[in-house]
Amino acid sequence: MRNRLIDLAVALGVLGLTLAGELPGANRPWFWPIAVAVTCVAVLLRRRFPLIAMLVTVGVALATPPMWATSVTLYTVASVRGLRWPTAVAVLAEIGLMASFFRPSTLEDWRSFGISLLLVVLPALAGLWMHQRAALLAALRDRAEQAERERDLLGERAVTAERRRIAREMHDVVAHRVSIVALQAGALSVRAKDDETAQLAEVIRESSSAALNELRDILQVLRDDGPEPRSLPDPTLSGVLQLADDLAAAGAQVRASLPDPMPDVPDPVGRAAYRIVQEALTNAAKHAPGTAIDVRLSTSDDDLVVEVANPLADSAGLPGAGYGVIGMRERVTLTGGTLHAGPDGAGSYRVRAAFPLRAEEKC
Known about the structure:
By secondary structure, the protein is an alpha+beta fold. It has 11 helices and 5 strands. It has a 5-stranded mixed β-sheet with strand order 1-2-3-5-4, with helices on one face. The protein starts with a helix and ends in a 7-residue tail after the last strand.
């Protein structure tokens, strides 16, 4: 649209300069309006057909001067074609047009002819400069895009290398430790002197084996950058009950108060709520073993509230990196919710997350 407006302005400018000049003789009054119309059309179409428009304006100028349109179309040919044969043809046509009007015989005539050649040199040089400038900008743009692609490629390679390094560390350290736990739990379940000990040892063995299977799938994701494995627990709101049952089977006191049926919530909210409960149960079992853990889910018209609480107690001495609460806060923030995690002033440690049911994940 912008180029069309420029072309229209240029055509009107050429028309104005033509009308301001000396009008043709009265012997051909019918030809002049046709010549002006053809010239204006050629100027309007000069970007699409640069050389043809140039030759048309030269032909019209031979019959009825002035030659403003030829300078405009010459500039267009040079700016579009650059140092190629169409530009050479256009320059020669313009010079031939000049020569047809000048018959220099004196020094003054030659001076006038030289000044008139500026109508050829200046548009041609200006057009060539614009062509080179456009080519330079295009080259710089291509280099910038190539540099950006290379940067993205290097970033992807760095991410892939880091994922594989993490996978190796998890395989060499975590998988080894969990395997030892599974083997020892299996041996204890066989040699246990009472049924309760054997049952607990079997729970530990099954949990360790499941952890190894899940770890194997996670390692595959880290190495291959594939989709989330199907063998991993489904991170939805309906899986919260299974989390509580698994921890209760391991000997913990878990009291779950969940709506039946589970409310239908957006996938990002269900996934975040599942992870909040999972992390809160893990922290409760780690830092307050033997205490009763309450899990409560409630809904209103606008919010889903998840609460996990347990009495404050002495920690079992298990190591913690301190990233659990940070991770929970990040998940809740991504869904537009709020999180409170800490002592509630009534002797309990409480994790409370409120999720807006109409929230959408930001990333």
